[in-house]
Amino acid sequence: MTATAVRNSLDLIGNTPLVLLKGPSEAAGCEIWGKCEFANPGASVKDRAALWIVRDAEARGELKPGGTVVEGTAGNTGIGIALVANALGYKTVIVMPDNQSKEKMDTLRALGAQLVLVPPTKFSDPAHFVHTSRRLAEETEGAVWANQFDNVANRKAHIESTAPEIWEQMGGRIDGFTCAAGTGGTIAGVGLGLKEFDENIRIALTDPHGAALYNYYANGELLAEGSSVAEGIGQGRITANLEGAPIDTQFRISDEQGLEWVSRLLSEEGLCLGLSSGINVAGAVALGQQLVAEGRKDVRVATILCDTGFRYLSSLYNADWLASKGLPVFPWLRAAE
Ligand code: PMP
Description:
The protein is 41% helix and 15% strand. By secondary structure, the chain is an alpha/beta fold. It folds into two domains: 212 residues, 3-Layer(aba) Sandwich (Rossmann fold); 100 residues, 3-Layer(aba) Sandwich (Rossmann fold), CATH 3.40.50. The strands form two sheets. A six-stranded mixed β-sheet has the order 1-2-10-7-8-9, with helices on both faces. The radius of gyration is 19 Å and the shape is globular. The chain starts with 17 loop residues before the first strand and ends with a helix. 4'-deoxy-4'-aminopyridoxal-5'-phosphate binds next to helix 7.
């Protein structure tokens, strides 16, 4: 692999490596590839959305020198925005629910963002973090609201960068792509982008429990069942980013299934990831198995390794926390007790 040299720190966003995942490939009976989004400067897939949203606000003339970017976010988008804003001389204000991981909050503060914590509540409540962030942006002089859920600059990042990178890295030989949706920017953007290269690439939504999209794509009804502790994914409505997303099929994956892959990817392949990555990999295995069962040969599926597990040391990688959620504790954490 050729290592790159860049003149501008923002050019470190994107162009992430793609890795063949051994365990998942064996389980699926085909090749499962993971796009290493944890390799972005902010250690998540959301750096791309942050960069595209900020550049779009500049291009529209809304964000001027010395201005402020305000966003409501479960964390990763805020981290991406804070880094991009620092690099371009803007201030960052982040509104997030107070039930998110401590690491994300500490990280945002460490990066210089002003953090506003609000209690978690339903989307229809005006006190929801998304609405709070919009109001703050309206009330703050020189501020723009990033609006990651309904600002399609988010999915454009994946149409213009993630999808062509995957296509090129796989040498144009890809049968399926899947990932979960938070804003839906990744699944919609990569889906639309890949279909531009080959409309036969099967795009599958991998939905966690507690989200409404699985039922929407399966039966046309937004209906949530169960719950999930996964951060950053699980959507209850069709955001502007999800409108027109080319979803061909869908899988519903439990936290236990996702955790099994988080555990195996770390212990067998040395990849320390968050739960949304584990859920994505479980979905990719299901999609691979589906394509293989149809008699296709040399099947290749790609998914997203969304963020680093180092962001979840006090939750996903903590025996007490896992036990308190009734989730299986990783064997090596049990041994340390
Ligand atoms: N995984 C994690 C950890 C995230 O923070 C996000 C962003 N909300 C996603 C997955 C989903 O990405 P998207 O918003 O593009 O649907």
